[in-house]
Write a structure and sequence with these properties.
about 50% strand, 16-stranded antiparallel beta barrel, single chain, Porin, 2 domains, mainly beta
């Protein structure tokens, strides 16, 4: 606007000057000089003689957005979950187990005072925002590719109108063709697959273990021809990074996962191969984790508590429209790995609690815009000295239907839960969820 006004004034002045001038050519040259000075002063980027002037509204380049170069890819979705259940969960928005419906006995955190106490909730907490960074090749490191991810959602403390941001992923990755180094927070090596249902908790403590934690990972993935790839990865990770209760058993201000003085260790070895379904891969892998927790004061006569798990994951595309997924595991003191129904150590005996569990599902996608999933999972802790109110088994099965009209997604999800308790009636609940989502 300023430039247009200035040029109009100059043009007006030019007409007057030319009418009065005895040397029109000199006046025209002077006016051209004044126009160029005005363009430079107003930031239009006037070009030198012989050069093509730049576009005044040129879009920013990646160098303007990323300080050291590279490319950014923003992604995410806006989502609303609406859920009704016919009995009370430990948390209606992010459920892990059903409270006992034993109305003869009340134990805080284990029973509810009313049977079949239905509830409804609606929240946007799973809405997500993230970006992926591709920094290109690093010449000094034999052209290693540098990349990374930063991702948030809002499934944290706070009410629906006062959300708290939750960090999901924050990691960098430097890699070559078959080897990479990863550092930061991302998914565990153990239990890498995710069930379709219950995205808020990803079926934690009811069959699906593993989550996200800070780690340093080394991975080797050599190819054998075009159809077979070996998977070998190890990681040093933070013990005690997931659970939020019983993290300091002796109450001395140091988290028990920090006290051993060394990190949790994870490893995964597997093979993935193409089969008759084009661009689909069969994957079979085994994995294990070992860590420890320590206290400075004795807890029921002990100061050292082991934690470990071993298991496998299996992904099998039966046809291009049908995929089968499964995981199974066994371990000890798995509260931080989302196993043992959040029970790692028996406070009465001081012993680590053993547990086993897993989940499986089959997904059918007959057309591009529709997919149906049927699955189930269980978490089965074992302890010879379970106290009243302790959770002895947790199980679930689910049906999920997704209607995808990109970028809009509508999902209908049903799940049936059963949680068993020592010396109490079990808790049962039917949970119905409507999910509306807009991807970007």
């Amino acid at each position: 606007m300023k430039l247009a006004l200035s040029l109009a004034l100059v043009a007006s002045a030019a007409g007057t000057a030319l009418a009065q001038s005895e040397d029109p050519k000199k006046e025209i040259d002077d006016l051209k000089k004044r126009v160029n000075e005005l363009e430079l002063r107003l930031g239009s980027g006037a070009a030198k003689p012989g050069e093509t002037p730049p576009k005044p509204d040129a879009s920013p380049t990646w160098k303007d957005l990323v300080s050291l170069g590279g490319h950014l890819k923003w992604y995410g979705f806006l989502r609303l979950d609406s859920t009704w259940s016919d009995s009370r969960f430990d948390d209606p928005r992010a459920p892990f187990w059903v409270l006992s419906e034993d109305d003869d006995t009340f134990i805080a955190g284990a029973t509810h005072i009313e049977k079949n106490d239905d509830n409804f909730n609606m929240h946007p907490k799973i809405s997500r925002l993230g970006f992926e960074l591709d920094s290109g090749a690093i010449a000094e490191l034999a052209d290693a590719r540098a990349s990374g991810k930063l991702e948030f959602d809002f499934l944290n403390v706070g009410t629906e109108s006062h959300q708290a941001v939750r960090l999901r992923h924050a990691y960098g990755k430097v890699g070559w063709e078959s080897f990479y180094l990863l550092f930061g927070q991302t998914a565990d090596l153990v239990s890498p697959l995710l069930p379709t249902a219950n995205n808020a908790t990803q079926m934690g403590y009811v069959g699906n273990i593993g989550y996200r934690r800070p780690q340093i990972r080394l991975a080797f993935e050599p190819k054998f021809g075009e159809r077979v790839k070996l998977l070998v990865a190890v990681a040093a990770a933070q013990e005690g990074a997931v659970r939020t209760t019983n993290i300091d058993l002796d109450g001395l201000g140091v988290r028990d996962g920090d006290d051993p003085g060394w990190p949790e260790l994870q490893a995964r070895v597997g093979i993935t191969a193409q089969h008759w379904v084009e661009k689909k891969w069969i994957t079979l892998a085994g994995w294990a984790m070992y860590g420890a927790e320590e206290t400075d004061l004795e807890v029921d006569g002990k100061t050292h508590f082991d934690t470990y798990v071993y298991g496998f994951d299996f992904e099998f595309p039966i046809l291009s429209q049908i995929t089968f997924l499964a995981e199974y595991w066994e371990g000890l003191n798995l509260a931080d790995m989302r196993g043992g129904i959040a029970q790692g150590i028996n406070a009465a005996s001081g012993q680590e609690i053993r547990a086993r569990g897993g989940w499986a599902e089959i997904k059918v996608a007959p057309v591009k815009w529709y997919a149906a999933t049927l699955g189930g999972g269980f978490d089965d802790p074992h302890d010879h000295e379970f106290g009243p109110g302790m959770r002895t088994k947790n199980s679930v099965w689910w049906v999920d239907q997704a209607f995808v009209f990109s970028p809009f997604v509508l999902r209908l999800e049903y799940s049936h839960w059963r949680t068993e308790y020592e010396d109490l009636e079990p808790g049962r609940s039917n949970r119905y969820t409507l999910i509306l989502q807009l991807n970007f």
